[in-house]
Design goal:
The chain has 10 helices and no strands. It is an all-alpha fold and 264 residues long. The longest helix has 54 residues, at 210-263. The protein starts with a helix and ends with a helix.
Length: 264
């Protein structure tokens, strides 16, 4: 298994874990428990960062604290995200595709349908965040969800299996992207600690102000785009092309060797 496949499978597992944990947290945990969990995470968040996370990122609103009420919305969001995450990962289990194709088909239909039905919710949720720079990557991701979802469905209807697989990999990346942005945010911790902090624009994260925490999140969101879709593009288009070329070359060798031997 190549490094690109390992990264893809790791992203799949982490997306499921993150989605299920968020589902449990926003349904059964109190606001204080959620913020304690965020504070104990590897995210580079000092007191100012936690304040930004709680107020500017709507965590208070997710518990109907303050004038903005979003508890019902976040509970629906974490539920539908968990459903889609599990569905996507099931789709890429080779044993199911080979031995239980009916499961693969119905889970695929349900996953695409769920994402399309929840699309207005996703759009409204992203539009509610005050992250203007991040929207340059988040809005394209949002647009790619129906594009690759519908494209992949039409391709399999026309028996274009290879093309369908490529589209579904890109479709999955649209959801993995948000988890990858949190992983990049975690990497910001060591990059802005100790000696390395002297060579980064934001400096030591322990001294960050609210605006620094906002900038760090924006950077993580932007960097997650080429990382996520770079891996997805490789697995969806570049790797199959390399494998096809390699297989074709092996086929030519097998055909020409006996001919050469015979003529000799």
């Amino acid at each position: 298994m190549g490094i690109w496949n390992i990264l893809a499978k790791t992203g799949c597992v982490l997306t499921i874990l993150w989605s299920i944990k968020s589902l449990i947290a926003y349904r059964f945990w109190s606001l204080d428990q959620v913020m304690d969990d965020v504070a104990s995470s590897p995210l580079p968040l000092n007191k100012n960062g936690l304040d930004f996370w709680q107020n500017d990122l709507s965590v208070n609103a997710y518990y109907d604290v303050g004038s903005v009420k979003k508890q019902a919305r976040i509970r629906f969001h974490t539920f539908i995200t968990a459903v889609i995450a599990v569905g996507l990962c099931i789709q890429f289990i080779k044993r199911i595709r080979q031995n239980n194709i009916s499961i693969h088909r119905w889970v695929g239909r349900a996953t695409i349908a769920s994402s399309l039905l929840a699309y207005p919710h996703f759009a409204k949720l992203l539009g509610g965040f005050d992250q203007q720079v991040a929207r340059y990557t988040e809005y394209p991701v949002l647009a790619l969800i129906p594009y690759f979802g519908i494209k992949g469905w039409r391709q399999i209807r026309n028996k274009k299996v290879a093309e369908h697989r490529s589209s579904m990999i890109m479709f999955s990346a649209c959801f993995y992207y948000f988890g990858v942005s949190r992983l990049v945010m975690m990497v910001m911790n060591p990059l802005h600690s100790g000696v390395l902090a002297k060579y980064t624009g934001l400096g030591d994260w322990r001294e960050w102000e609210r605006e620094d925490a906002k900038d760090a999140l924006t950077i993580a969101i932007v960097l997650a785009f080429p990382l996520t879709f770079g891996v997805a593009t490789y697995n969806a288009y570049i790797l199959p092309s390399i494998e096809a070329t390699s297989t074709k070359g092996q086929g030519i060798t097998k055909m020409t060797v006996p001919v050469v031997a015979k003529s000799a």
